[in-house]
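chain below, 207 aa
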Amino acid sequence: MAKSGEQRSASVGAVENRNSMVLVTLGPRREALDRRYVDLTAGLPTHPHHHEGSWAVGRYLETPGARALSLDEAIALVKQVRIATARGASDCLESLATSVAAPIASIAIRQCPELPPTIRERIEDNRAQTYADSVMYRQALAAAAKARGWSVYWYDRDAVFSVAARTLGKGDITTHLSALGRAFGSPWQAKHKLAAAAALAAGRRSS
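prediction:
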C-alpha cells in the first residue's frame, strides 16, 4: 500500500511558448518519464488577438507584415484558431498519454489572468489583446486535460518552485532538477526546469 501523500500516478508540467507547449512528465516516484515540445496549431497565425486583431482596430499598422482587415474578419480568425487549438491540444495529450507507461492524473498550467468575456472586447482592450492568445492556448490545454479526466493545477510561476520543494520535503529542488536534467539529457533549459517544477507541484495536489 502506498504511504499517505505518496504520488501514485504521473503528472505533467506545461510551459507555453507562443502556440506551443513544453511538456515535462514525471512518474509516480517523481522520475523523468517524458519531455516534449508540441505545437497546438499549424499553418495558422499564432497571435490572432494581438496581431490581426490589433491591425483590425488600427494598432501596429506600421509594423512589417501588417495588413488591413475588418474586425469581423479578425474575430472569425480567432474562432478558427481556437477550434484548431482545441483539436491540437486534444491530439497532443492523447499522444503523450499513450507514450508513457504510468497513468497520468494531473497537469500543471500557468495561471491565466482574467479577460473580457468576448473576442471583440479582448481585441479592443489594449491590455487584454497582449495576452489573450497565450490564455487561449492555456485554456485549450486545460480543457483537453479535463476531458481526459486529469486534474488541472493552475500554478503561480513565482511560487511553483517553493510548492515543488515542499512536495519533495526539501528546502529547494535544485538537486532534483539537476538529476532530472541528466536523465532527460540536453536541452535542459529554464523552461524545462519550470515545467518539471510545475509537474512536481501538480503531483502534490493529486497525491
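Helices lie at 48-56, 71-99, 119-124, 132-147, 160-168, 174-184, 190-206. The chain has one domain: 10-206.
thats it, cya
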